[in-house]
Amino acid sequence: xxxxxxxxxxxxxxxxRKSVPSTGxxxxxxxxxxxxxxxxxxxxxxxxxxxxxxxxxPLAPRQRIxxxxxxxxxxxxxxxxxxxxxxxxxxxxxxxxxxALWIGPDxxxxxxxxxxxxxxxLPARLAGVPGISAVxxxxxxxxxxxxxxxxxxxxxxxxPQDIRLGGFPVGAASRTILSKAEIVLxxxxxxxxxVECWRSFADYVWTFLAEAARSPAV
Length: 218
Description:
This protein has one domain: Probable tRNA modification gtpase trme, domain 1 (Gyrase A, domain 2, 2-Layer Sandwich), CATH 3.30.1360.120. The protein is 20% helix and 30% strand.
């Protein structure tokens, strides 16, 4: 029987395109460009709002982790981070550039304003500590500063929690709601709050606060 010869097929245009690395505007392969450190974008970049006695300002990117730890791990966690974790509801602690906000009996939101690319990440500091969960949520959240004599009234327009200074003093932190959005509210001064929300709700939260700031019920 004669040997059958199969003609080789020429590559299709689609296959040829797949074999050539795609390039960005700089002409470098896409894989190379993906490795560059691009600045983190916020859905609130460039926004600013104010009203009688209050200003709203989007805060710069920061490190955040959602920390869960059992009682046996607390000492090791505190040693690694260099601060004592708050143990009572509606409280926070800070040491240097790191703050811990009490969220639940075994849950904290850890925040660090040091977002430099070379800084050691919070999860890296906790590497090797048993009995914990440290999830990086830096890109999940967006923070807004609400400050001024009317800051409390603006937030109270959508927050059912009593945030008056007597019951919600400086340093108080709580997971609560603002209208229809879940937030973490942190009082960092007598007339200053920080509102943490998921970035998918950032536009909604910002718009609500901006509208409330137009005529705060002081």
